[in-house]
Amino acid sequence: MSAQAKPNVTNQKSLTFRQLILPFLALLPRLPMIARTLKTVLSLSDEDRYSIGGVIEENAVRFRDRTALFFEEKSWTYQEFNQEANRIANYLLSRGVKKGDNIVSFLTNRPELLFTVSAAAKIGAKVSLINFNLRKKALSHCVNIMPVSLYLVDEALVEAFEEIRPDLPEGAEGNLVYFADSASGDVPKGYHDLKKEAGHASDANPPTTKKIILGDGFCYIFTSGTTGYPKAAPQSHRSMYRAALFNGTVALNVKKEDRTYVTLPFFHSAALKLSWLCTHMNGAALIMKQKFSARTFWDDVRKYKATTFFYVGELCSYLMNQPEKENDGDNPIQKIMGGGLRPEIWKAFKKRFNIPKVMEFYGASESNGGMINLLNLDETVGIALESHAVVEYDVEEEAFTRDENGFCKKIEKGGVGMLLFETPLHKDQFTGYTDLKETEKKILEDVFRKGDRWFITGDTMRVMGYRHYQFADRMGDTFRWKGENVSTHEVEEIVNSFHQVAESTTYGIKIAGSDGRLGMTSLIPFCEIDRFDVEDFARYLTQLLPPYAVPRLLRFKKAFETTATHKIKKVQLQQEGFDINKIKDPLYILLPGQKAYIPLGEKLYTDIQTGKITF
What we know:
Layout: H1 17-27, H2 31-43, H3 52-62, E1 67-71, E2 74-77, H4 78-94, E3 102-106, H5 111-123, E4 126-129, H6 136-143, E5 150-154, H7 158-164, E6 176-179, E7 192-193, H8 194-198, E8 217-223, E9 231-236, H9 237-251, E10 259-262, H10 269-280, E11 285-288, H11 297-304, E12 308-312, H12 313-321, E13 335-339, H13 343-352, E14 357-363, E15 370-372, E16 382-384, E17 388-391, E18 393-394, E19 399-400, E20 416-422, H14 436-441, E21 443-445, E22 453-465, E23 468-474, E24 478-481, E25 484-487, H15 488-496, E26 501-509, E27 518-525, H16 534-544, E28 553-556, H17 571-576, E29 587-589, E30 598-599, H18 602-609
Parallel strand pairs: 1-11, 3-4, 3-5, 4-8, 5-6, 6-7, 10-11, 10-12, 12-13, 13-14, 27-28
Antiparallel strand pairs: 1-2, 8-9, 14-15, 15-16, 16-23, 17-20, 18-19, 20-22, 21-22, 22-23, 24-25, 26-27, 28-29, 29-30
């Protein structure tokens, strides 16, 4: 079954010229500014002596007394923000951190994360932004993926970090730095106290900032990719600056008076690259939240007078699921930006919360391409500016369809296929992963001519016409849940290591009223099902996997169908999902807040399908 044969699940199959006229006319006055920005973006060179640290220092003068950051009941002006970054930068320099060094940041959403990233940018050091949900093997993998000069650990995450501390290389013990959340309390043994030690450092701009060029490394953002543990996607000052300049100036049209509300985790590019940097570059204010709360979201928006917020699809669904209030539409939001807003709630979401502009985008930290909904059209990720193609892909065979000449076939308007971005010849324009072998796995050759190379996104798109697209689905061995990429290989490795499991396969399935896909594992046990320890199994998985990656549904099987190359066929399992009317195999479920899997009966199945039980 090819990707284009999949049934359409939205009303908006394609666009007409008539739908584009008014949005395009509305954009006309901004076209000269957009053209100037694009010219600047395209002219940036890796050799340019400029950096994100330079932007922060310039803005400390340019927007001196304007508010740069709100966090809880505190705020920092642009000058104060720069001074905080300088103290940490000068502290890091005193500890011997230098250009090219790597720093691990295992921090929750808090101002110190931004101060530290800014400080490292002034030195030319790179920050590995570790997902604070990771534990044990996955955490150890990300922390140790490359040589590290310093480890920055949040008070709230010390316990998790201590579990993998024995995995750190020799010499790491003297380079552990502790961020205290509370005003009192002892610093754990073996850690340096950052607040105390950096508090005495100079708040003057360090001399290193002017030595950084755009091609220097800025940070590592981790992505699940398609297989195995999270992979580190390196980001240069150039890639960060380009994205922030384009999105802040062209897409969102950020003004100094804007206030951007962000509840997304700052180890993701959506929060760091797009939310913070495109806000900071334009003299606007960022409102950072430690975590998302659907209950207090709109009260916060009104309290801080936010004009913009960044989202993932789940965030919008959670807000829609809240009880309706008379003042839902009474808020200061003028525009929002994010990815994954479900087409079926798109218009209702805009109407209920009185949101004029939705700038949906598509992109990946490791990719060289992306899409943006510049014209504010409904139910689309917009246009792609880079060279791209949507081609036929056989879902069952997990292979690209080729014509008689061995080349891929482009999808026509209204159809669905795999999105590819052409890989540029210049290395500085394509990020990839730190692991070259993993990067090569994502490259498809001889797509339309011999020798051409294209990046496989792993995502299918519906071709809407006029260079516009709608996100359809994620293919392969990764699925998205709770705004996170879940690697099925990572889950399977953990599941298969449980003493009662002989073999397993994991995949994501659609459930009613939810974004992304819920994790489900089909497994063959060594024992009879009634002797399988479902409580111990649940405890085992929750200890070793981040919460979003724990499979919520189990299907016990006696055998798997496999391909000629002995790969387990997942497509039929995925299509059958957890439909008790089709499946004869025993099904079990791990309900929210529960400690053990329980049998899935008709009542539970109905409650999930009708939305009485949500995940």
